[in-house]
Design brief:
mainly alpha; Ferritin; binds fe (ii) ion
Length: about 160
C-alpha cells in the first residue's frame, strides 16, 4: 500500500504519518492512564467516575485502532511497541494508586488538552497535504474531547 493508491502524494503525506504515529503513542499512554483511574478510583465519586473512566477508555481504544489503521491506509506501519509509545509520547505515565478522585479528573483533563493540541497540529498538516480523510477523522476525535473537557470541568466545579 502506497499513498499514491488513494491519490495522495507520498512526500506530502510523510509529515502526516509522522504526526499520526506521535499521536498514537500519546493516545496509548492516555488510554492506560484511564484504565489506572478506572481501577484505582476510591471515595464518594466511585460509582460516577469508575463508569466515566470506562466510557473514556473504551472510546480511546477505538480511537487508537482508527489512528493505527489510518497510518496503514497511508502506506506506513503504525508504532505497535510499548517502548515506542513510552519514548515518543509527550503525555507521561502517572501512578494512579492513592490518587484523589479530583486529581484523577485533572490528570485526564491535562491529557485531553495535550491531545487536542496535537490534533490542531494534525488538522493543519492534513490540510497542507490535502489529506481530507485524516483531517475528518482527527476532527471527530477532537470534538469528543472538547465536549468531555466541558463535562469533566463541570463535574470538578471549574469554570
Ligand atoms: Fe472494569
Amino acid at each position: 500500500m502506497d499513498a499514491k493508491a488513494i491519490s495522495l502524494k507520498e512526500k506530502d503525506v510523510k509529515p502526516v504519518v509522522d504526526l499520526l504515529n506521535d499521536y498514537l503513542a500519546n493516545y496509548h499512554i492516555h488510554y492506560q492512564k484511564l484504565r489506572g483511574c478506572h481501577w484505582n478510583i476510591k471515595g464518594q465519586n466511585f460509582f460516577t467516575l469508575h463508569v466515566k473512566f470506562e466510557e473514556l477508555y473504551t472510546n480511546a481504544q477505538l480511537t487508537i485502532d482508527e489512528i493505527a489503521e489510518r497510518v496503514l491506509t497511508l502506506g506506513k506501519p503504525p508504532h505497535s511497541r510499548f517502548q515506542d509509545y513510552i519514548n515518543e509520547s509527550t503525555i507521561k505515565e502517572i501512578d494512579t494508586i492513592g490518587l484523589k478522585d479530583l486529581d484523577m479528573v485533572d490528570a485526564i483533563l491535562d491529557d485531553m488538552s495535550k491531545l487536542i493540541e496535537l490534533e490542531r497540529n494534525l488538522l493543519e498538516a492534513t490540510e497542507t497535504a490535502g489529506d481530507d480523510g485524516s483531517n475528518d477523522m482527527v476532527n471527530r476525535f477532537m470534538q469528543f474531547k472538547e465536549k468531555n473537557t466541558w463535562m469533566l470541568r463541570s463535574f470538578a466545579g471549574k469554570k
